[in-house]
Amino acid sequence: MWVMSSSSEDVERRGRPQPSGAEGEQAEPLSKQAWTLLFELMHAHMRNFPALAAEFELSPVQAHVVRQLGEGPLAMSTLANYLSCDASNVTGLVDRMEARGLVERRGSEQDRRVKMLVLTEAGVALRERLLERLAEPPESIASLSEPDLCALRDIMRRALKSQ
Amino acid sequence: MWVMSSSSEDVERRGRPQPSGAEGEQAEPLSKQAWTLLFELMHAHMRNFPALAAEFELSPVQAHVVRQLGEGPLAMSTLANYLSCDASNVTGLVDRMEARGLVERRGSEQDRRVKMLVLTEAGVALRERLLERLAEPPESIASLSEPDLCALRDIMRRALKSQ
DNA sequence: CCTCAATAGTTGATGAAGTCAATTGTTTAG
DNA sequence: CTAAACAATTGACTTCATCAACTATTGAGG
Fold first, then answer.
1. What is the tens place of the pLDDT at every residue in A22-48?
2. Chain B: closest CA distance from residue A94 (Å)
3. What phi and psi, each to the nearest 5 degrees, are found at residue B144?
4. Rounded CA separation B62/B99 (Å)
5. Which protein residue lies nearest to nucleotide C27, measured between its Cα and the C1' atom?
6. Which B positions 15-74 lie with beta carbon below 8 A of chain A?
7. Which of A37, A48, B36, B155 is the most exposed place for a label (fewest CB within 10 A)?
8. Which pLDDT score is estimated for B25?
9. Which chain B positions have a beta carbon within 8 Å of A83's beta carbon?
């Protein structure tokens, strides 16, 4: 049957081993080890992203949009692409945000099909508070040593550069 | 306009309104710098989590549940708590997953109110494939140097230990 | 024992967020 | 100038989320 209670241990048979942190598994590439750990921390933190967004009375997606829209006006299709979702989804999303006075649709002059999204003044103000809040490190990061933080920062910079 | 991918030395001292910080006012605290960058990478990656889950015909939440359920049987309320969502939400979620043969409700014997969730055999199999897929590092991580990866892994271990 | 509060799960109503298919305007290419 | 391509919207539908109300069970005290 299922025999779930000790997952990692029952999978001790041949073939590809479980990626979870079994010690002595030296065959795992370093990148996989590092990524798995990073992913774990990531997910632990993403669990309370909805709650964090709710502090600003935003849905998670809206928070994401507010954050992204600060870089400048964006066509709706570009936003859809950025969110990896269907364009039709963005329509309703923006409807609600516009109704709340956070964003504004304004027609492009080069191409009358597209509508550019810009943050309203209220939207910009909200975004600043949001970014400030998002930048607060969680306990697991804040408690790292200074050299670790320094190294982490530099590594992240290098990682992001290659995107 | 603040662009966080800017170079390392422009740690602005007076750029934005000072956060209500326990830290002293100087440059942005190191933990904040590191966290902000980490957060950026995190979000860049979370964008395609839905697509990744879809590879297994799972919704993002279902993928999360499959992943979590591997640790052992879980009461529905515990899962609700873990997902930071209402218990009533879990009912429908589990309904759909049960209909797909991934999980099974089984009544607890200590307390006839609670129902324990366990992965079915198919659920376990799916979970293994999913974990394998999740462990594949994205390009930004895979392209890091070996010392960086090593340092990152060790730092993440220390960070996760403090949770 | 019996009542009463607390807990676990479900149901129903509702809304946000996602999909797809079809539609309306507006470029742009042949 | 027609025809294909594209941007945004609409409508039908699913999933995820909330809240309020309900059932059943457990666990205290009186």
1. 444 457 899 999 999 999 998 888 888
2. 18
3. -70, 155
4. 13
5. A111
6. 16-17, 19, 30-48, 50-51, 64, 69-73
7. A48
8. 55
9. 47
Segments of chain B scoring below 70 in pLDDT: 1-26
Given B16, B123, B156, which is nearest A41 (Cβ)?
Answer: B156
> What residues have CB less than 8 Å from B159, skipping those under 6 apart?
A41, A140, A141, A143, A144
Output b/e per residue, B76-105; b: 16+ Cβ within 10 A: beebbeebeeeeeebeebbeebeeeebbbe
Q: Which of B143, B153, B157 to mutate to test the interface with A (most CBs of A within 10 A)?
A: B153
Token readout for A137 is 């490190």
Residues 6+ apart with CB under 8 A from B71: A7
d(CA B41, CA A4): 33
- Cβ of A30 within 8 Å of Cβ of B158? The answer is no
**What was the pLDDT predicted at A26?**
55
Q: Which amino acid is at A123?
A: G
